[in-house]
Write a structure and sequence with these properties.
heterodimer; A: about 110 residues; mainly beta; six-stranded mixed β-sheet; about 0% helix; globular; B: about 110 residues; seven-stranded mixed β-sheet; four-stranded antiparallel β-sheet
Chain lengths: ~110, ~110
């Protein structure tokens, strides 16, 4: 069955640095991958979607890469700010094409 | 649009009682998803609907769980009878999957079963 791993439960980083989060998956070849942000007490919020034929996607200070050979996605936040502190979830296309499988998330803390 | 609406936001009940969680998806969205989130297991898909029809309920943990979507603007998730291990945050999400696969989540219902 599909397995999704996000590299670490928690990541602390100094303000202004680039945060890099990793999502690895096995036993699967999804057509797309998504990243979500979740703040405490709230539902996840969609950030970016990248398709299997796209190597990289950017949105403001966010960048996502998708390596289907390594079965890995990297999520970068450049010039990180304390407001970026949250849990970030990666999600892969599910078997039904419309549903998603979520990783357990990485809790990012940006230290001023 | 108000976004996905869930009620109640918090529910505390005793073991054995019936619990009903409600969800109103974003108007015009054709897919609706129910998730459960716990510290141990993360965010798990329970069931999803396309055009009000249940497509995959393989994530529903037991027969105690049931979900309905009588129309495009309303869905319920029912647990009967509830057990302490059902304590979790339950999220509803909706999507317009003919256009995009991004999902819009509600604020969640925090369920505590004592």
């Amino acid at each position: 069955s599909q397995k999704i791993e996000q590299n670490s439960e928690a990541l602390n980083i100094q303000e202004g640095k680039t945060a890099t989060l990793t999502c690895n998956y096995t036993n699967y070849s999804p057509a797309y991958l998504q990243w979500y942000r979740q703040d405490p007490g709230r539902g996840p919020v969609f950030l970016l979607l990248i398709r299997e034929n796209e190597k990289e996607k950017r949105k403001e200070r966010l960048k996502v890469t998708f390596d289907t050979t390594l079965k890995q996605s990297l999520f970068h936040i450049t010039a990180s700010q304390p407001a970026d502190s949250a849990t970030y979830l990666c999600a892969l296309e599910g078997t039904g094409a419309n549903n998603l499988f979520f990783g357990t998330g990485t809790r990012l803390t940006v230290i001023p | 649009d108000a976004g996905v609406i869930q009620s109640p936001r918090h529910e505390v009940t005793e073991m054995g009682q019936e619990v009903t969680l409600r969800c109103k998806p974003i108007s015009g969205h054709n897919s609706l998803f129910w998730y459960r989130q716990t510290m141990m297991r993360g965010l798990e898909l329970l069931i999803y609907f396309n055009n009000n029809v249940p497509i995959d309920d393989s994530g529903m943990p037991e027969d105690r769980f049931s979900a309905k979507m009588p129309n495009a603007s309303f869905s319920t998730l029912k647990i009967q009878p509830s057990e302490p291990r059902d304590s979790a945050v339950y999220f509803c999400a909706s999507s317009m999957t003919t256009v995009t696969y991004e999902q819009y989540f509600g604020p969640g219902t925090r369920l505590t079963v004592t």
